[in-house]
Design a protein that fits this description.
249 residues, elongated, 9 helices, mainly alpha
Length: 249
Amino acid sequence: MIIVNSLRSVGRYCMFMNRAFSVPERWRIFVKRTFTEIYKLGVDSIPLVIIISLFIGAVITIQMKLNTDSPLLPAYAVGLAARDIVLLEFSNSILCLILAGKVGSNIASEIGTMRVTEQIDALEIMGVNSAQFLVLPKLVAFVAFMPVLTIFCMGTSMLGGLLVAMFTDVISVSRYVYGLQALFIPWYVWYGLIKCLFFAFIIASVSSYFGYNVKGGSLEVGRASTQSVVTSSILILLFDVLLTKILLQ
């Protein structure tokens, strides 16, 4: 029964995406709504990304020092390991898991509220493709701005480690900075940016799907918001494994 329901949900999701990716009838409205969503979903998330990244970068640096405190390892290994952890996983996978809670629940609750208050039905009566009108600007906006959030995360995470080096005796600043530069592989940056595009699409599309298909009242809106976060998180972890296998083999 679970498999049947899952397949049915996948089919409905694909049909929903087919409606959402139709050509906009009025490009001026579409562009305006897209920039509005960029500010609401992306720019408003920058403070959260910076705060989380600073603290996580600091914690990673401290933990790397505690776990690599060996005479067999060079002193700059702390900065090197912290950098690679941030580039390979935290700045994309872990960040998107966090944003699935903020952005995903926001999208699901917004569209779900429009469904239960019959605003979506009003759009359909007026002959508007409600899936395209409501969902496509959110998808385009969040996918387009997610690399910016990822770059912010990369930079501020390493800054958090630098602050630990500056204001504590965990590691010297020169050794930490040298570790950030040592054995740098540029592909790791592109790898993180590629993954974040997939994860951003998952968050925006899955949250929109659950919000759009809400049936009932405000209680169901909250349930749809929770389901969107859980489903997005599971899919992000699944695609993290697949993309890591494909991009780093």
